[in-house]
Write a structure and sequence with these properties.
Layout (H helix, E strand, L loop, with lengths): L6 E5 L5 E6 L5 E8 L13 H8 L11 H8 L3 E6 L4 E8 L3 H13 L5 H20 L2 H14 L12 H6 L2 H11 L5 E7 L3 H12 L23 E5 L5 E8 L7 H15 L5 H9 L3 E7 L8 E9 L5 H18 L5 H16 L3 H13 L5 H11 L3 H13 L2 E8 L2
Parallel strand pairs: 2-6, 7-11
Antiparallel strand pairs: 1-2, 3-5, 3-6, 4-5, 8-10, 8-11, 9-10
Length: 419
């Protein structure tokens, strides 16, 4: 069933966009709200502020005490959480459909009535700092990814670490947080998404009841005129890793619906190369030629800003980092020369589409996919068109995508075990 058969969307007078996704297979509902703000909206001096604000959203309003929101949802048998990305900050509750009004009441309250207590602010900044230590500073691969992002984009757009820098986290003030909240946490910068089992007319009445009195506000652009020229200098570090690791990072342009075939061709090519046990990297580099211990590819097709495609992996003992680097690039060169093997295109498409379709069995994933697209200002109809778009890709489209990889400059990074 296509999304368009069961999605209803509208925009309230105050600018709040509402998307209702009906899925009545269980009595569960996911109530979520998405704000168009994340690390790519930040700048040097306040990096990490979106994530700190996410933490503070659980620290009470004029109507609730710190932690009360989470306690109420838990007592109702539900679960809740939040997340900060490069382009969005989101909050959700997964709960029995009978508690939809409770979720809307609590979530709408903290859109406007958040209380900023200095003691809670200081505690949450320390919590975020500890998250940074655990997720970045103590993880060699995460540290290198951060270095790559900064070298490619600087402290702007997708170069800004979502978690923030330790220096900025130490200097953010509660006044900065209030300014961020008042500017971005407004109806006309938000999308409310309900997914699951609900009655549409009742849901609309409840949404109007709890969000209808909030006014539209002007949203200021806090970005600066910072410019950065990408550097392709190699990054080489020694760290606490058991095996060496190399990464090749290529500039990847932002998503544009007018050239989505080109973008999807790259997505399918990367699936062909590293999409599972039957992918070329696994068969050729790991199983047959014994060059790599493991491989991975990191990228985002739906990128609001220019991003990166990163190929990575660890060489086997006796194989040099240079040999693995050349083996990665050679897979694309051989593909350009020899093309696809029998049934390879069909099998790769089937694998990619099966994974996507299976994920949509979850109402949470449905809300996540629609929310991520909407907050990046992309139309959710892309999800309905995806199967046809992927099936329209030809061998020559993949070869052209591979040519872009082999002709592009890249940032080469390596991590060697400490002596």
């Amino acid at each position: 069933m296509r999304f368009s058969d069961r999605i209803e969307e509208y925009t309230m007078d105050n600018g709040l966009k509402v998307i209702l996704i009906e899925d009545n297979r269980s009595p569960v509902i996911v109530s979520s709200i998405w704000y168009r703000v994340g690390s790519s909206y930040e700048y040097s001096g306040v990096s990490g502020i979106s994530h700190v604000l996410e933490h503070m959203m659980f620290k009470g309003t004029t109507n609730t005490s710190p932690g009360e929101f989470s306690k109420i949802i838990k007592e109702a048998g539900g679960s809740e959480n939040a997340f900060t990305g490069r382009d969005f900050t989101g909050y959700y509750q997964k709960i029995h459909k009978d508690y939809l009004e409770l979720c809307l009441k609590l979530e709408s309250d903290r859109m406007s009535n958040l209380v900023f207590r200095e003691d809670e602010f200081k505690k949450e900044v320390e919590v975020v700092k500890e998250e940074r230590r655990l997720r970045t500073d103590d993880k060699p691969v995460s540290k290198v990814f951060e270095k790559i992002g900064l070298q490619a984009f600087g402290m702007k757009d997708y170069g800004i670490p979502i978690i923030g820098t330790m220096k900025d986290l130490s200097s953010i003030k509660i006044s900065d947080l209030k300014k961020w909240y008042k500017n971005y946490y407004v109806p006309n910068n938000a999308t409310l998404i309900l997914a699951g089992n609900f009655e549409s007319s009742n849901a609309k009445l409840l949404i109007k009841k709890y969000y209808g009195n909030y006014g539209k506000k002007k949203i200021l652009d806090y970005s600066n005129n910072y410019t950065h020229k990408i550097s392709f200098n190699a990054i080489s570090v020694k760290d606490k890793v058991s095996d060496p690791l190399i990464l090749l990072s290529f500039k990847n342009k932002s998503f544009n619906a007018s050239d989505k075939k080109e973008i999807y061709a790259m997505e399918l090519l990367l699936e062909l190369m590293d999409g599972g046990l039957s992918s070329r990297f696994t068969k050729n580099l790991i199983d047959e030629n014994k060059i790599a211990l493991n491989t991975f590819i990191s990228y985002d097709s739906y990128s609001r800003k220019d991003g990166l495609i990163t190929l990575g992996g660890s060489p086997r003992k006796g194989v040099s980092a240079k040999d693995l680097k050349m083996a990665f690039l050679n897979e694309f060169t051989v593909f350009i020369k020899n093309g696809l093997k029998e049934n390879e295109l069909t099998n790769t498409k089937s694998r990619l589409l099966a994974n996507k379709i299976y994920e949509f069995d979850s109402v949470f994933y449905q809300a996540m996919q629609v929310g991520m697209l909407e907050t990046k200002n992309f139309d959710w109809h892309l999800l309905d068109e995806y199967v046809d778009d992927i099936n329209a890709i030809t061998e020559i489209d993949l070869i052209n995508a591979a040519r872009k990889i082999v002709s592009s400059s890249y940032i080469y990074s390596s991590i060697e075990p400490e002596s």
